[in-house]
Write a structure and sequence with these properties.
heterodimer; A: mainly alpha; B: Four Helix Bundle (Hemerythrin (Met), subunit A); globular
């Protein structure tokens, strides 16, 4: 197992390039996902507040 | 109208595109991530080591797909830019500007993994040779397109300017591709450009083709995620966006009502 992770002495190079690639891809999935959810949530709250103001006013 | 043409035109309609992104997302996500896992495990665990480079060659399974995608995303953006400039398709404007950061990410990935591969093989993280320099220029072009779009207030004008810049920058793509042939570079020649007689063993080639397909689907996934937000922001007052927000408000009311019923019981 440790032989597999050492990658014949190139472990640091192989795993850092794989890790960095996964990190960049993960970032490019999570950030746009959160942005979409946050935007819709904020619009929903806005809509609800407007409705509440309408009822009380 | 011809049915094929009609099918094609639908993708220029925002309220046609958005719900299809929503339904398509889980499938693209599933396919992209499973292919990525299969390709990487195959390449990192089961593919044989290279007779010259040993296990260091395994960086190929992230480096080559990233480098391919850095150019493929640009070619996709070129098609979008033409759609913007010729037919004024707004969905294409949004897809173009959603693609720019993704292309930059893949370019950055190609540069990083290339540097990490270069250190043990060439003895240097970076050399100013034709392949590496033209790839670095690609990164600046992506960032330039993104910055230009966000610097212009009127978003229709901004998209037009970004499209023009995309078309100008496309000259860099053949330079990157042929740099290893035109100039004497340290970078090795392509392993994949001739699929009938590839200069790579099938046991190493298969996982590479799978990660390549996986990276293409990753681009589609990232594009869908960014495009849907761009669509909402471009048409905030439209009936279809209002309907989505209304549905969310309703969904918020419904579960709380049900919960209060449960409590009463």
């Amino acid at each position: 197992m440790s032989e597999f992770f050492s990658m014949g002495g190139y472990g640091a190079y192989v795993w850092s390039s794989v890790g960095l690639s996964l990190l960049v891809m993960g970032y490019n999935l999570l950030i746009p996902y959160w942005r979409h959810q946050r935007l819709l949530q904020s619009w929903r709250q806005q809509q609800q507040e407007e409705a509440r103001l309408h009822e009380s006013g | 109208m011809h049915p094929v043409l009609k099918w094609f035109y639908q993708w220029a309609v925002p309220h046609f595109v958005y719900p299809r992104i929503q339904t398509g997302l889980p499938w693209v996500a599933l396919l992209a991530s499973s292919l990525l896992v299969i390709g990487l495990v195959w390449g990192l665990v089961f593919a044989p080591a290279d007779y010259q480079q040993g296990d260091a060659f395994r960086i190929i399974y992230v480096h080559v797909p990233a480098a391919w995608l850095s150019m493929l995303v640009y070619m996709a953006m070129t098609m979008m830019a033409i759609s913007v400039l010729v037919w004024r398709i707004q969905v294409a404007e949004l897809a173009l500007i959603a693609s720019a950061p993704i292309g930059a990410a893949f370019t950055l990935m190609a540069l990083f993994t290339g540097a990490i591969w270069g250190k043990p093989m060439w003895g240097a993280w970076w050399v100013w040779d034709a392949r590496l320099t033209s790839e670095l220029i690609l990164l600046f072009i992506y960032l330039g397109i993104f910055a230009l779009y966000h610097a212009i207030e009127d978003k229709r004008q901004a998209a037009k300017a970004a499209s023009l810049m995309t078309l100008v920058g496309v000259v860099n793509i053949p330079i990157i591709h042929y740099s290893v042939i035109w100039w004497n570079t340290l970078h090795q020649p392509p392993s994949l450009s001739k699929l009938d007689t590839p200069s790579i063993h099938p046991d190493m080639l298969w996982p590479l083709l799978i990660t390549l397909l996986a990276f293409k689907l990753m681009y589609l996934w990232m594009l869908m995620l960014r495009l849907r937000t761009e669509l909402l922001l471009r048409y905030p007052q439209s009936a279809w966006v209002q309907a989505i927000v209304q549905a969310m408000v309703q969904a918020q009311i419904q579960p709380t009502k049900d919960k209060s019923k449960d409590n009463a019981r």
